[in-house]
């Protein structure tokens, strides 16, 4: 059997513009594609007629995010954050944690304070922020 390779991570979003601001403007991602689609295949995939989506592809930190916003039946948002089994977030290694933190603050993203774990075998510092749909993003830097 041929080995699998990663293509992209699918993320359903409520506001594509806010998502692009977060991932591209705030975190330095590269927008590869941004389009609106309506097609019989989408109707079949979603199980309803008239499906219209806006989808993007964003490259960041070696990951390719495929964001999908339904335009015909908008999702109202996540409400209070509820952590459940499954993909909860993404983690990125950065060379300069303070610069990443400052960039997130300058973009209005409200990062947490920087946390340090010096007592573990490979000390690490990190902070967290949430994308517009509540996906937890960890920015981290090893200190040794």
Outline the biggest β-sheet. Answer: 4 strands, mixed
Strand content: 25-35%
Q: If you average the pLDDT, what whole number results?
A: 86
Order of strands, main sheet, comes to: 1-4-3-2
The count of helical stretches stands at: 3
Order of helices and strands: EHEHEEEHEEE
CA distance, first residue to last residue? 39 Å
CATH C-level name of the largest domain: Alpha Beta
The domain count comes to: 2
Shape from CA axes? Answer: elongated
- Are there runs of 5+ residues with pLDDT below 50, and where? 79-84
Which structural class matches the secondary elements? alpha/beta
Looking at the overall shape, the CATH architecture of the largest domain is: Roll
Description:
By secondary structure, the chain is α/β, with parallel strands linked by helices. The chain has 2 domains: 9-70, 2,3-Dihydroxybiphenyl 1,2-Dioxygenase, domain 1 (Roll), CATH 3.10.180; 89-142, 2,3-Dihydroxybiphenyl 1,2-Dioxygenase, domain 1 (Roll). The protein is 19% helix and 35% strand. It is built from 3 helices and 8 strands; from the N terminus they run βαβαβββαβββ. It has helices spanning 16-26, 40-46, 97-106, and strands spanning 9-12, 30-37, 53-60, 63-70, 89-93, 115-117, 124-130, 136-142. The strands form 2 sheets. Strands 1-4-3-2 form a 4-stranded mixed β-sheet, covered by helices on one side. Strands 5-8-7-6 form a 4-stranded mixed β-sheet, with helices on one face. A hairpin with a 6-residue loop joins strand 6 (115-117) and strand 7 (124-130). It is elongated.
């Amino acid at each position: 059997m041929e080995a699998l390779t990663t293509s992209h991570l699918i993320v359903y979003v409520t506001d594509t513009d806010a998502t692009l601001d977060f991932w591209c403007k705030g975190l330095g991602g590269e927008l590869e594609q941004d389009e609106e689609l309506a097609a019989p295949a989408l109707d079949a995939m979603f199980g309803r007629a008239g499906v219209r989506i806006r989808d993007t592809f964003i490259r960041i930190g070696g990951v390719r995010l495929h964001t999908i916003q339904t335009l015909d039946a908008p999702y109202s948002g996540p409400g209070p954050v509820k952590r459940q089994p499954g993909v909860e977030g993404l983690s990125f290694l950065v060379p300069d944690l303070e610069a990443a933190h400052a960039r997130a603050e300058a973009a209005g993203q409200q990062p947490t304070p920087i946390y340090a774990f010096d007592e573990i075998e490979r000390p690490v510092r990190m902070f967290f922020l949430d994308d517009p749909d509540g996906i937890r993003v960890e920015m981290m830097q090893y200190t040794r």
